[in-house]
Amino acid sequence: MSAQRAETVPAKGFDDPVFDGQATFRAAMWALARPGRVEAVSAALEPPAPLSREAAALVLALCDYETPLWLDARLAGVPAVAAFLRFHTGAAIVEDPREARFALVTDPREMPDFRVFAQGAPDYPDASATLIVQVEAFGDGLTLEGPGIEGRAAFGAAPLPADFVPRMAANRALFPLGVDLLLAGAGGVAGLPRSVTVKEG
Amino acid sequence: MSAMPAITYNFAYLDEQTKRMIRRAILKAIAVPGYQVPFAAREMPMPYGWGTGGVQVTAAVLGRDDVLKVIDQGADDTTNAVAIRGFFEKTARVATTTSTREATVIQTRHRVPETPLREDQILVYQVPIPEPLRFLEPRETETRQLHALAEYGLMHVKLYEDIARHGHIATTYAYPVEVAGRYVMDPSPIPKFDNPKMDDCPALQLFGAGREKRIYAIPPHTKVRSLDFEDHPFRVQRFAKPCALCAATGVYLDEVILDDKGGRMFVCSDTDYCNTRQEEGHRGEMSGASPSRQPFPPRGEGAEGGALHLSPPGRDRSEAAGEGASGGEVRP
Predict the structure, then answer these.
(1) Domains in chain A: how many in total?
(2) Which pLDDT score, from 0 to 100, does residue B8 have?
(3) Which CATH number do you get for residue A56?
(4) Among B167, B166, B154, B164, which Cα is nearest to B227's?
(5) What are the Cα distances from residue A11, in Å, to A3, A16, A87, B58?
(6) pLDDT tens digits, B40-71
(7) Using the beta-carbon criterion (under 8 Å), do B32 and A32 form an inter-chain contact?
(8) Which residues of B touch A (CB under 8 A)?
(9) What average pLDDT does this structure show over A70-90?
(10) Superfamily name and number for B16-226
(11) Cβ-based contacts under 8 A for chains A and B
């Protein structure tokens, strides 16, 4: 452990924490307000692999000592990632996904069931997890409906778990409970809040 | 040695941790439209009731390139609007405007602008009492249960009692709405005239209540339905005459008392809309007779001197009659 600690001088964070944080938040805000539309994330970061620049920017913009953070197995295996995130945000890294306010998923195909994360309570539906899911590309293949969308919108991202549509349907059925997704990658972020209905085609 | 730096604020006054906390609340508010997200509202350098909630939401979303407009009952030139505009000019150095079209962020007290909003705009409402059921059920634990169970019968009873007593729904402002088919929400004390503008609005609508420590939101293009009954459908106020200055119809009018002999006029509540129309050459029946309109006072005065500037002559707004229940209103 001590050898690892010595080598983890964390990579740099935002060049300008105030304005990079604000711009990244605004991208996440518009992404959740207009599900499926990809908003640009431009902050210059060099986080340790396999954490992507876009996902790292979202964590740095939104997390701090008040937000326990859960890392998927691929990230948890890289101590430099936890060191980087702890150093820049002060967030506690938790092993129990139920305790997490934010969860970082870099391997979406192996993404755990949404039910392992906090779903919120009927009188406090906001007490639910936000999943930051790292993807490689955005595209189409899915149709979205719901608040924030005029009519319907085409959306797609890769990679996603094979059972993504039934997962999102189960999440939607819990409304107003459920988790919210921020898909990060390819220079942008897209939002899939719990209010969205995801269909094939 | 360089001179001592002048006292500076963090961008937009709030510290970064506070902004992150508010931003997280905004994200959850967007994900659950109409649900009131609790947040740790801070003390602001203005008293509760003057828009501390709206100011904190604006501070959390504001960026360097934003253009900010602040309105108070539709007017850009009243004390609350001038002071808040000055506050952000001083603490964020953002550009400000009185034009609805130029603005990217519009903070509002009790009106929705008449000019249709665009999808790149954010409308931030100042909210005094966010809980629509509060005057029917004072206990927070109970109202929270009612929202959890979507049990809104109380609100319908209240509207029904209006009909039993007055023959029509007498609620004229803060008229309750149902958002995205789930949560009943207080639209803040906007006149019910503005309720239809919230439905399917292309802009993002954020609501901040500072004293009550709640944030809620309506995403763009979201269904917002004013509560009503099949035999007593929701109707907005109508006015007998057009605006006396710009002849606009189909807009919300304020009553202005002209003298102590019963003289009065009805003018647009939205000053930017009215000014724009007059610049375009529209003339109302009293545009010649009314005192000449003053140009807007210089920006930022609210933050500089601290002196209160009263409205220019002829622009006094009557706020009486229960805010929004304008005297010129004609009941259908």
Answers:
(1) 1
(2) 81
(3) 3.40.50.11310
(4) B154
(5) 17, 15, 9, 32
(6) 999 999 999 999 999 999 999 999 999 999 99
(7) no
(8) 10-11, 16-17, 19-21, 23-33, 35, 37-38, 60-64, 119, 144-145, 147-149, 180, 182-183, 200, 202, 204, 217-223
(9) 96
(10) Bacterial phosphonate metabolism protein PhnH (3.40.50.11310)
(11) 112
